Predict the 3D structure of the following.
Amino acid sequence: MLNIEKPILSAPMGGATGPEFVAAVSNAGGFGTIPLWGQPVERVRFGIAQVRALTDLNFAVNVNLAFPYQELLETCIQENVFAVSLFWGHEPSAIKTAKDGGLIVLASVGTADEAKQAVDAGADIIVAQGWEAGGHVWGNVATMALIPAVVDAVDVPVVAAGGIADGRGLAAVLMLGASAAWIGTRFLASEEVAIHETYQQGILNASESQTEWHNDLYYVKWPNAPHRTLSNSTAQKWKSAGHPLTSERPNAGEIIGHKPDGEPVLRYQSYTPSSGTTGDVEAMSLWAGQGVGLARKIMPAADIVNEIYSDAKKVIQAGYANSKNF
Ligand SMILES: Cc1cc2nc3c(=O)[nH]c(=O)nc-3n(C[C@H](O)[C@H](O)[C@H](O)COP(=O)(O)O)c2cc1C
């Protein structure tokens, strides 16, 4: 359906995955997705044009349903993009608008029931996101249990997300019935992502036990949206103070740094520190999933796609060879 050679989709990562990264994934035989939500129409058009300047292959535009999205969706249709990925909740009208506009729709879900609803509304592909995932995490079910449940519930291709970071993970989710993997955190250790070096170093150093899932820790600018990040000083301060509510948090409202354009970054703000961010980057929302322990080295995105693909192939072939011996 996506016309790709390798069953690897790069996850859209707001503030991290720009045109260069997305094109590199598609050019390597995978499928790139670009987050363009929260931007004025002209920036959206420019973002799409930039990817197209770097690849003739397919990619998707990611739409966040928690923010106004109608204009973004209309722009994707006008620009004739190949596919959109819809994230954060179920909006049958958004699926219908995209389908009527001729786009392939990938819908992100966290349960089998949500997958059924999305398919009933016309979604072409389901992205099932497990709780291990980095960034904002919609559901509460872990990937291992979620994928077979979703695969059994719908008759469209299912893409597995959350905790998949190497060839073994890709092979595992294919065994669970997924058609492909949707990979975020591992790609944070790629050359083309535009994240701050302190954040990237944090990714390279963290083990599988050094992420935290919270309901509403980084609530400023995107409240009531559970998420998984690296453990850091902000989380530590807040936990030591007994998880106080919004207004009573230690240092709430404090400016801890600035974005490259000079806009302040507040403590507890939902913000991906990009290169060029200044201030106390360690204290910002450093999104990461539990697969972070497998992101050990910065590599070109294409090499990550190729390594995951060929390692998955080896694991699967070894599995067949072993099973012949029984
Ligand atoms: C830094 C970061 C930013 C993210 N931003 C988005 C986003 O803008 N839109 C979206 O649909 N998902 C976003 N996600 C979630 C990913 O799409 C995906 O579900 C997740 O990364 C998969 O799990 P993994 O990190 O274990 O590979 C983000 C994840 C990370 C780590």
